[in-house]
Amino acid sequence: MAEPGAGFDSRGMGLRVQKNLLGKMSSKSIAKVFIDETTGRVLDNTHRIIKDYASTKKEAEKVMKYIIKTVVKVGILFRNDQFNAEDLKVVESFKTKFHSLAMTVISFHEVDFTFDVSYLCKTLEECKALLQKLIARHLTDKSKTRVDIVFNFFAQPDLLNAVFQSDSKYSETFDAIVKDMHKMMDDGNL
After folding, report:
1. For 131, how many CA atoms within 13 A lie in the half-sphere containing its CB?
2. Alpha carbon 55 to chain centroid distance?
3. Span 28-86, pLDDT tens digits
4. CA distances to 6, 94, 105, 153, 186 from 126, in Å
5. Rama region for 113: left / alpha / beta (φ>0; ψ in -120 to 50; rest)
6. What are residue 110's phi and psi, to 5 degrees?
7. Are 176 and 47 in contact (CB under 8 A)?
8. Could you give all domains of the chain from N- to C-terminal order, each with its CATH number?
9. In the chain, pLDDT over 90 holds for what percent of residues?
């Protein structure tokens, strides 16, 4: 006779429920449960730039929704110890590469005549590849497509040139993003 509950994985079920709920409720209010105040401001200011740059309001909302879903899903996986030793190495590689990307963005913004669009696109592509490797066995193809959409959006040379040009219409908003990125680094969150 089988033991009661044999074959039932409550932890796995809980994780699936969390991911399914997230899929149905990915909004700013849900994001605030998983995303701190400073990160929230970075996302809000990023949304302002995306909304102005994107071809439609719908595209801007889609990109932001995909960012939030991805961040929260990876956070859920991490908090529920779903990453094995190999995954954790990829996590560390991604964190290092993403930190380098953030430092590069800050430097390009703060130091005149340093902006290099091809370098930034290459680094974004490397971050995307690491994130795809991390989520490969954990998330659906739909989630993987979302990651591609987000990174491909930000790796558009026209967008990067518009944001980083010296007389950019996004300067004030980007100043606020960079200020918060400094705070995130100081706090060890970036």
Report:
1. 24
2. 21
3. 555 555 677 888 888 889 999 999 998 888 999 899 989 988 988 898 888 888 899 99
4. 43, 9, 15, 15, 24
5. left
6. -90, -25
7. no
8. 20-186 (1.20.1440.160)
9. 56
Residue at 87: amino acid letter: D
pTM of the entire structure?
0.81
Task: Give CA 181 to chain center in angstroms.
Answer: 13
Tokens 């739909």 map to which residue?
Answer: 142
d(CA 171, CA 155): 18
Q: Average pLDDT, stretch 101-109?
A: 94
- Integer Cα distance of 11 and 186 in angstroms: 34
Q: In sequence order, what are the residues at sequence separation of 6 or more whose Cβ sits closer than 8 angstroms to the Cβ of residue 83?
A: 77, 91, 134, 138
Compute φ and ψ for 156, nearest 5 degrees: -75, 120
Q: How far is CA 78 from the centre of its chain?
A: 14
Tokens of 69: 């879903």
